[in-house]
Design a protein that fits this description.
Layout: H1 15-18, E1 39-42, E2 54-58, H2 74-87, E3 91-94, E4 98-99, E5 111-115, H3 122-134, E6 138-143, H4 153-160, E7 173-174, E8 197-201, E9 207-212, H5 227-243, E10 247-250, H6 283-289, H7 298-310, E11 316-319, H8 326-329, E12 340-341, H9 344-347, H10 353-368, E13 375-376, H11 386-389, H12 411-425, E14 431-435, H13 456-460, H14 506-509, H15 516-529, E15 536-539, E16 548-553, E17 556-561, E18 567-568, E19 572-577, E20 587-588, E21 592-598
Helix pairs in contact: 2-3, 5-7
The structure holds alpha-D-glucopyranose.
Length: 599
């Protein structure tokens, strides 16, 4: 495999391409990277499904409501599963549906082996799993091991037990600093705002120790130095594997181990990657600067779990590991660790030519070096939906949302760029993730009033950061049937939809040429047909000019136009395009993408 160096080059286009009637004169490309047409990535030719799978994320609260109470649930999902088979995805990842007081929408688990009554029960889950498997869809569940709910019996027992007891050792309790221990043990900031420490009242009624929580105070961090914690989670993994799940998405897979002595952090960032901004630091410097993210001892846990996963047939686990640069993230997917990790570098690369080149090359280089497939992802439940991000000027920090008083995004621009970026992404070899609703082109809810907000970020920052509710709004299924556009039978909906959602409803797009839903279906169909997930990638300089960018994967050219002028297309069959009515004779307009089967 050849990986490009950072070289400035001049590219001469072949007479063959120039002779295709193109009037615009070509300027030399002087981008970093792209020096030739060498194959950059060769997929491993084996049968491991997760290397190529397209995985659809369901946020259970907001996918479909089966009982009319306004909260999505498992029965609701089961009745709508055919729509995902029709979409053409391979697997579904469920955000947590376990027993939980719902302080962080289920990422605060009080029983890892049961379903929250909001979503149903274990029998509903078994039914869903059986139906999904019958439809050829795999199921991945979300495991939250970094922290439990403060209502978990382990934490309740810790509160009732004395300092230094085995019950307290399940979590991270410390004495405070200063006069009577009134100051938090260190300066770590919670991802959701405020401190990572909360002081408890001891069983004797006096103010006492502090406990650590990277997130909300209702989410105490478990002590992964304690063998009992490790044993308990082995059993949780086995519980779900025995039930037949195909794998796990592991929450905060980079946070479980804290640096010995819990030293102050040097980078007071609330982003999940912490020191992401310190681009000039080495990985070792980042580990010291951020004592609670990406500590090297976490890899022993990864390896322990991988052994469990591999003791079952055909299962996989994906890490939510916000550790950048990608070279660092790739340590989570070495051959005996995770199967996959979310490519957050790509998620935030941006829709422009230079950024796409850089991010794609970095991804192949970093993951290729450890023999792992790259994944590709643009949206999830923690991030402003990508169609909305591309319609905004400026960037918000990860985990922040948009409120009514913010500058509002350009919806049409965002949708055009969003569709193009998805079409560019889905042609790439490796695994891919789709977040529910993006197949409808659904925008973020950007005018949600404070009274509806539920994200702890909103409360912990007193509304300064509005949080992530805007990307978690229930899906519209049938336009205008009721107030929730068919999300529930009653019109109830735990977060209100914005008026625009009616226009995006699934029934208005189904079977309609040019709709975003049909675009996604076609992309996924052609991706499968031409085995692009398992393909070989090279940049295609012969179809690239100053503003366009092209690659070839398994004989399919994927071409994007980032520039103002139209681009002439090479000969071949148009398999799929974001540009309505584009044929091989037409020119590709700006912010449009086409897949062409080369003849
Ligand atoms: C992960 C989840 C996010 C949650 C946090 C705490 O980042 O994706 O939704 O709030 O972990 O569990």
């Amino acid at each position: 495999m050849t990986i490009f160096g950072n070289v400035l080059v001049t590219v001469h286009f072949t007479a063959d391409y120039l002779s295709r009637g193109r009037s615009k004169s070509f300027r030399a490309i002087t981008l970093l990277g792209m020096t030739n047409n060498d194959v950059l990535y060769i997929s491993k030719a084996d049968a491991e499904w997760w290397r190529t799978a397209v995985i659809y994320q369901i946020y259970p609260r907001s996918f479909a409501d089966g009982n009319g109470d306004g909260m999505g649930d498992l029965k609701g999902v089961t009745t709508r599963l055919e729509s995902l088979q029709e979409l053409g995805v391979d697997a579904i990842w469920f955000s947590p549906f376990f027993k939980s007081p719902q302080k962080d929408a289920g990422y605060d688990v009080s029983d890892y082996k049961d379903i929250d009554p909001l979503f149903g029960n274990l029998a509903d889950f078994d039914e869903l799993l059986a139906r999904a498997h019958a439809l050829g869809l795999r199921i991945i569940v979300d495991l939250v091991p970094n922290h439990s709910s403060d209502q978990h019996e382990w934490f309740q027992a810790a509160l009732k037990s004395p300092k230094g007891s085995p019950e307290r050792e399940m979590y991270i309790f410390r004495d405070g600093k200063g006069w009577f221990g009134r100051k938090a043990p260190n300066n770590w900031p919670s991802v959701f705002g405020g401190s990572q420490w909360t002081r408890i009242t001891e069983p004797n009624g006096k103010k006492g120790q502090w406990y650590l929580h990277i997130f909300d105070s209702s989410q105490p961090d478990l002590n992964w130095e304690n063998e009992r914690v490790r044993d308990e989670f082995d059993k949780v993994l086995q519980f779900w594997l025995d039930r037949g799940v195909d794998g796990f998405r592991i929450d905060v897979a980079h946070g479980m181990i804290k640096r010995a002595g819990l030293p102050d952090t040097k980078t007071i960032s609330t982003e999940m990657g912490g020191a992401k901004a310190e681009a000039d630091m080495t990985i070792e410097e980042l580990e010291v600067a951020n004592p609670y993210w990406g500590q090297p001892e976490v890899h022993a846990i990864n390896r322990r779990w991988r052994k469990i996963i591999d003791s079952y047939n055909d299962r996989a686990m994906a890490a939510e590991a916000w550790v950048l640069p990608l070279e660092r993230m790739a340590r989570w997917v070495r051959p005996d660790e995770y199967n996959q990790t979310f490519n957050f570098g790509y998620m935030f690369a941006g829709w422009n030519k230079e950024a796409q080149i850089k991010s794609i090359e970095e991804s192949f280089e970093a993951f290729g070096a450890v023999g792992a497939p790259s994944t590709w992802v643009l949206s999830n439940h923690d991030t402003i939906r990508h169609v909305t991000r591309y319609g905004m000027t400026g960037n918000l920090p990860q985990g922040d949302g948009i409120g009514p008083s913010y500058a509002q995004p350009d919806e049409a621009l965002g949708l055009r760029k969003g569709r193009a970026s998805t079409a560019f992404m889905l042609g790439l070899p490796g695994g891919a993730y789709i977040y529910q609703g993006e197949e409808l082109g659904l925008p973020e809810h950007t005018t949600l009033e404070g009274k509806y907000r539920q994200d702890p970020t909103y409360f912990r920052t007193k509304g300064e950061r509005v949080g992530r509710d805007g990307c978690r709004v229930p899906l519209p299924w049938e336009a205008g049937v009721n107030e929730s556009n068919g999300f529930s039978s009653t019109g109830e909906s735990w977060l209100p939809q914005p008026d625009s959602y009616k226009r995006y409803a699934r029934d208005l797009q189904r079977g309609i040429a040019g709709s975003t839903l049909e675009l996604y279906k076609r992309l996924l169909k052609e991706r499968k047909e031409h085995n692009l997930g398992g393909g070989n990638f090279r940049w295609a300089l012969e179809f690239t000019d100053e503003h366009s960018l092209a690659y070839v994967n398994n004989g399919v050219a994927v071409i994007a136009n980032f520039g103002p002028e139209p681009v002439q297309l090479p000969a071949g069959e148009v398999l799929v395009t974001t540009q309505v009515d584009l044929t091989a004779e037409h020119e590709l307009e700006h912010d449009q993408v086409v897949w062409i089967k080369l003849s």
